[in-house]
Write a structure and sequence with these properties.
489 residues, mainly alpha, Serine Threonine Protein Phosphatase 5, Tetratricopeptide repeat, 76% helix
Length: 489
């Protein structure tokens, strides 16, 4: 009996202990699994958070690429057909000259040097740079006589700067034979074709240019063609886009200066002045903008400031055109002696330009027609017309013939300058004024009245001398006669 009890009791104790140990092991396993799961969950969560936050983590700081130096900026501008700053051009010229002393067979550097001298001459109106440019470009062609598109293009740019548009066309077309897709050559050819009066070729070349490139230089060239066609709003909008996309201060200043010219041609004095002032702030060496300020300030009646602006521009950029404008401003103020000084300066500048191979016969002919000998003006401008029959020459020759008393022939050229069929789509107050005055001399009062009114409508301030004359003649012509309407039956 005891044995059975003891056996029974002993068996139960051992069974309970065994169960207790099993439960403990299961609990510890569950706890371990739970802890492991929690740890894995935390790890996964941490990885997820880290992945989500990775883009926001600060990246290692990288220094920006170094800005190109003055020489590199000028080279980029020169080779891309955009304006370069004068100080940068000087550095580029010095660097290329030093390089070529030890590498005289580097045809590309000779071409770059020549192009830089062309740009320097254009920016300063100093024709002495052009013979130096020509020597550099011809040396490039001598070193590499075949396939040298850069030097051929440089010669085209030089010819345009000298107003030798026939030579520019020849050099430009030769450059395209080497590289048909050289877009900068297309831009130079448009200038040459325009100077030669070949507006159809200019427009078709512009279409090809726009298919090859879309930079600011192309926009500026497009704006010039649009303006010549009379598309004033398109021209202004395109130049505004070019100025907004410009990459350097000198480039943006150049496009703003051209926008100022267009605003001035529309008679928008205040807008023109703002553009010219903004251009000068960006590039103080841009004397075209300074002369533009003089033009706009004179129209606004701020005469003292206008005279100062013109004088400052002429001191740094001796342009015959600026001398003519300043002389006429003095003359409009009754300051004939001061005007005479500017006219003498104009003659000296034309002679200096001729020594550098620059053709300034157009501005000289305009001067002679109004302030000198109209017969000399006709002789000069007839020769100019034979060489490069563009719109500006047609207008100037027509006016010179009128001043010399040849009114009927004068009207033929005035019509060319203002008739869209002959390419004269540009809306110019001066051209309209000239045509109106020629028509008045021929007794064509109706057309004369219409064209004089058009001149003042385009730009009421187009000249300090001739805008008041247009108003005076219109007053003399009076109102158009009333036409009696036939009675109806």
């Amino acid at each position: 009996m005891e044995t059975g009890v003891k056996t029974a009791v002993g068996t139960g104790t051992e069974t309970g202990a065994s169960d207790s140990r099993g439960v403990g092991r299961r609990f510890r396993r569950r706890r371990a699994r739970l802890v492991t799961g929690v740890l894995l969950g935390l790890l996964v969560g941490a990885l997820v958070v880290a992945w989500l936050l990775w883009p926001q983590r600060p990246q290692p700081r990288q220094d920006p690429p170094p800005r190109p130096g003055p020489a590199q900026q000028a080279m980029t501008a020169v080779t891309a057909g955009v304006p370069a700053a004068l100080p940068d051009l000087a550095v580029l010229i010095g660097e290329r000259r030093a390089h070529l002393r030890t590498h005289p067979k580097d045809a590309r550097s000779w071409a770059v040097l020549g192009a830089a001298y062309v740009e320097q001459g254009r920016r300063t109106a100093d024709a002495a740079h052009y013979p130096t440019a020509e020597r550099a470009l011809r040396t490039s062609l001598k070193v590499r006589p075949r396939g040298n598109a850069a030097a051929l293009e440089g010669m085209a740019a030089l010819a345009n700067a000298r107003r030798d548009f026939r030579a520019a066309r020849t050099w430009g077309e030769a450059a395209l034979k080497v590289d048909r897709r050289r877009w900068t050559t297309h831009s130079l050819l448009i200038e040459a074709y325009t100077g030669l009066g070949d507006y159809k070729a200019a427009r078709s070349t512009l279409e090809r240019l726009q298919g090859l490139h879309s930079g600011t230089a192309v926009m500026a060239r497009s704006a010039a063609v649009y303006w010549d066609r009379g598309w004033r709003e398109d021209a202004a909008a395109t130049l505004a886009d070019a100025a907004a996309k410009a990459e350097t201060p000198a480039e943006r200043a150049a496009w703003l200066e051209r926008a100022g010219q267009l605003a001035w041609e529309r008679g928008d004095r205040e807008i023109a002045l703002r553009h010219f002032q903004a251009a000068m702030r960006l590039d103080p060496d841009l004397r075209a903008a300074q002369a533009g300020q003089g033009r706009a300030l004179a129209a606004l009646g701020r005469t003292t400031e206008a005279l100062s602006a013109y004088r400052a521009a002429l001191a740094k950029q001796p342009s015959p055109t600026y001398a003519l404008e300043l002389g006429e401003l003095y003359e409009s103020l009754g300051m004939d002696q001061a005007a005479g000084v500017q006219y003498d300066l104009l003659h000296a500048q034309v002679s200096s330009a001729a020594a550098g191979g620059v053709d300034e016969e157009l501005v000289l002919g305009r001067f002679e027609a109004d302030h000198g000998d109209p017969g000399d003006a006709v002789r000069l401008l007839r020769a100019e017309w034979r060489d490069q029959p563009g719109i500006a020459v047609a207008d100037a020759l027509g006016w010179a013939l009128h001043q010399a008393g040849e009114h009927e022939e004068a009207l033929e050229y005035a019509e060319r300058a203002t008739d869209k069929e002959h390419g004269g789509g540009v809306r110019s107050a001066l051209y309209a004024y000239h045509r109106g005055m020629i028509e008045r001399a021929l007794g064509l009062d109706g057309p004369a009245r219409r064209h004089l009114e058009e001149a003042l409508r385009i730009n009421p301030y187009f000249s300090p001398l001739w805008a008041p004359m247009a108003r005076e003649v219109l007053q003399e012509l009076g109102e158009p006669p009333e036409v009696e309407v036939p009675a109806t039956r």
